[in-house]
């Protein structure tokens, strides 16, 4: 079936994660592409938890997975269904395959054992047919074929009485009427076995679309151990769900008009599963930051304040009693366009709520001006700001005059003043921040404090 015919029928897709780890960007991309395909074709999105690995499954991971899907806005129509609750059905299918001679009992040495009913302590293998070509049309990869002669009989039922992944996957897809299986390329090799199982069960084959691998900057497959892949971690660092979804959509797919930063509603209008590329997709953190920053800048003021509130609450790096919501609201308007993530906010505003700014020798080193001492700049700035009008343009004019007297442009003069007042080389517009959120006396005190430490 082609991409166009796939979209022409009422489809049923499923996202079927295993609760053996936290939701990572690869699985989230798979969940998103299934969601986009279902929503763009009027289909049904099924959530199935493939929890047949009892030793590795953890209920808190399932809870986390569901929470992250909800955070991303990927709602489902049916489920969540739990594979572990369908063991009787899986057993029924295995018993039928045994009776029909399509599977056989085997011992720990992989020797076939006579019998057509399940026996405790014995596994069951599917009997691979000889000299059969297993072919299918993958929406992303085109025609794919395997020879059954290259595949060995495979276990479908463990000796401990539990189903193997491929058996449970095939049975559940069949029973749930899954028409389109959209999943990662790493699962491609298992397709011929699943198709043979579906044929044996007498179930229609779904249409497959295998999404390209995600790779890091070294073009190596993303790794949970080596790379930043946890959706929960990105959430905790202050990435917006709409930005995360936007960026995930670009991993293997691109809009026809090349406008990459856009809301999910527009992506949904443009998305076609047949447009997904087969080449590996580079997970570029800098691009994700750019997408997130663009979405941050687009937020209305009230929504921005609501979204950023958790990062300036109890966990913020200043005493709770020192927080001034009026000052913060003013400052938020000055820094919204500078943030990459919501988690950046504390370091942009902490100087307002700490008694003294953070001491950072590296910032002072960056702020030094060749040929002119920071002391000269701070002395001149303190004198100039002591009696000028306390508003941004007047402060800029006063400090600019100091710079002219020292043969320096405003940016050079401003650098040590910024570090003295805020503790950092990067932050909000300095003169607006001082004039609108700080008293003259506090600014001069900080400059004097910094001057004394030079």
Task: Report what the structure shows.
The protein has 454 residues and is α/β, with parallel strands linked by helices. It has a domain of 153 residues: Arc Repressor Mutant, subunit A. The strands form five sheets. A four-stranded antiparallel sheet has the order 5-4-6-9. Strand 10, helix 6 and strand 11 form a beta-alpha-beta unit. Helix 8 crosses helix 10, helix 15 packs across helix 17 and helix 16 packs across helix 18. The longest helix has 17 residues. It is elongated, with a radius of gyration of 30 Å. The mean pLDDT is 95.
Total of helices: 19
CATH class of the domain at 301-453: Mainly Alpha
The CATH level-2 architecture of the domain at 301-453 is identified as Orthogonal Bundle
Class per helix and strand makeup: alpha/beta
> What is the arithmetic mean of pLDDT?
95
Question: Uncertain spans, ≥5 residues at pLDDT below 50?
Answer: none
Order of strands in the sheet with most strands: 5-4-6-9
Let me know the number of strands: 13
The major pleated sheet works out as: 4 strands, antiparallel
Task: Please give the radius of gyration in angstroms.
Answer: 30 Å
Helix content: 40-55%
Proportion of residues in β-strands? 5-15%
CATH fold naming of the domain at 301-453: Arc Repressor Mutant, subunit A
Shape estimate: elongated
**End-to-end distance:** 73 Å
